[in-house]
Structures are given as structure tokens and as C-alpha cells.
Amino acid sequence: MAEATESRSGIAIVTGASRGIGAAVAQAAAVAGYGVVVNYSSDAAGADAVVNSIRARGGEAHAVRADVSQPADVERLFDEAARRGPVTAVINNAAITGDLIGPLVDVPAGTVQRVCDVNIAGLIYMCQEAVRRLSLDSGGPGGSIINISSTATKAGSPGTWVHYAATKGAVDVLTVGLAAEVAKQGIRVNAVAPGSTNTGLHAAAGMPDRVERLNPTIPMGRGAEPEEIAAAVTWLMSDDAGYITGAVLPVSGGR
């Protein structure tokens, strides 16, 4: 396959981009002028659909399979992206809840381990490699890291996903700490914390009406669309947000 031409904004890696918020972020990044690496771990068909949609509108996109919980996969993901041009944005969206819905006491050890491996360890591996590649001190171009958190950190998701909410608390802490570490290296680190959002996550977990049930608790009276989360991400990536780092931006309709 011929090498793609370099995007005017560089390359954006979006993890977990085969569906939902990740897919919307990939589409929005392409519109903003980035070449996009659509990362996925198992949903090849979904990733290909996102890539084809971006290309159909004249954008540059490539799908790369990688499990972010595996450091070797993370390094390969960045290597594949760097073949397309300089990586200037990394959006860490990949996360899982585990199959169980219920109180924390019932969550099996295997589920706890896997959720932490992907949501915390995977995020750290991605951020480590992003700093290595983007840092001005290492000859990189500088750029932006955006982590996808959740407003579940406020409510704690009792009775459903306390373990998942706890990992998103770790995302917020990492965002603030890493932002301070790398600010002088030309890298901005921020997070977007979506509230209730209309994605397939809830139906896949056996709760297809979850967003509707939460609507009365949201001041704006509805869940977010993935594109609304993506708009916040691309704004934080843009020069308009050039003096913002270490921020966790809630996109939650006021909830």
C-alpha cells in the first residue's frame, strides 16, 4: 500500500475508535485536518467503517489493531502512526466496563484486573509513548494528549460500575499530574469527562434504556450525542485552547 501524504495538522491517534465516542472523535479530527489512526482491539469491521467514512469525505485515515494494555502493542501503534507523518495528537478513549452490572462486592477479580489493565495501565502506556514521541526535548513536534474520563467520577456509579468509575478517577489524576510534568516540553494534557451519552455501550451492557432513565437527572434533560463529546475534544486539541493544560472538562448537560 502506498504511503499516505502527510496531513497539515499531523497525525492523531484515537484509541477505541471503532464505535461510539471514539468513532465520533476520529471523524471530527479528520474534519479538523488531521490524518487519523483509528485504533481498535477487536472490532475490525467497525474500524474499517470509520476509516471508509473519513476517506469518502476526502480525509486520511488508517485502522491499526492494538491492545493498549500491552506495551508492545502500544509501541507498534505509534510506529504505524509515525509512518503516516508526525504524531501531534493522542486521544486516549479506549476503556471497558467489564461484563458485570451490579454492586462492587460481586465484581470478579478477573474483571477488576482487566478493567484496570485497559483503563489505567493502558492509559499510562499510551501517555508514556506519547510523551516520548511528542516531546520537544526528544526532537518531537509537541502536541496534545486528550484523555477521555467520565462524570461517573462524581457519582461513583453505585450499583452498576463502581470499579469503572474508580478507573476514571485515575484518569483525572493522571491528566493533572502529567500536564504539569510535560508543559515545558510542548505537550498539553487535558481530559474530557462525558456525562450520559447515546452510544452502544449501555445496550451492550444490557441496559438499553439507561440514558433515557437518567434524563430526568440532567438539567438539559437529555443525554449527549457522541459528536458533542468529539467537539469538546477537537477544541482542546486546537490552537484556541493553546493555554489550557491540566483541565478536566465536563460535557454533561449540567449533571
From TrEMBL:
It comes from the Bacteria. Keywords: Oxidoreductase. InterPro entries: NAD(P)-bd_dom_sf (IPR036291), SDR_fam (IPR002347). The keyword Glycoprotein does not apply. SUPFAM superfamilies: NAD(P)-binding Rossmann-fold domains. Belongs to the short-chain dehydrogenases/reductases (SDR) family. This is NAD(P)-dependent dehydrogenase (Short-subunit alcohol dehydrogenase family). It comes from Paenarthrobacter nicotinovorans (Arthrobacter nicotinovorans).
